[in-house]
């Protein structure tokens, strides 16, 4: 199935989460409202400029490329198999997905979620020490290395909101790739 040039291959939303406070965890919700150019309504990271404390400290005028954080539920399953107790929202993500290889998407990919929301992938989440404060060893568990020794960050991706929309669990996710040549995701 295809919607407006976006390919729909069975990917879907498993959970949506937000938190008004700058805390590590986000609470699961029945739905979240995505606002174009801002992020998740009612979330501490919503805004046109950076909201993550470390980035605000270095330059509060930077554009917010981290309006929406997505993690694939397949990572949760991998972590649970390694002995961690992980549920949606606990690693700070706004949208938990299933059936889409988030880490393989090129920068600029647009994800059409639910009936109207559209987000654009900006880069990888850079895992921080808060993961170890949540569960010891979790930060190392979301980092890996490929065959050439390059660091792989598995803690999800970040995006900006292009088109407003309500997002709920079970909503479909359709992928619209950017023009080639594709640019690999880097940390943002």
UniProtKB/TrEMBL annotation:
Residues 27-176 form the MOSC domain. InterPro entries: MoCF_Sase_C, MOSC_domain, Pyrv_Knase-like_insert_dom_sf. GO terms for molecular function: catalytic activity; molybdenum ion binding; pyridoxal phosphate binding. Pfam families: MOSC (PF03473). It comes from the Bacteria. PANTHER family: METAL-SULFUR CLUSTER BIOSYNTHESIS PROTEINS YUAD-RELATED (PTHR36930), MOSC DOMAIN-CONTAINING PROTEIN (PTHR36930:SF1). This is MOSC domain-containing protein. It comes from Acaryochloris thomasi RCC1774.
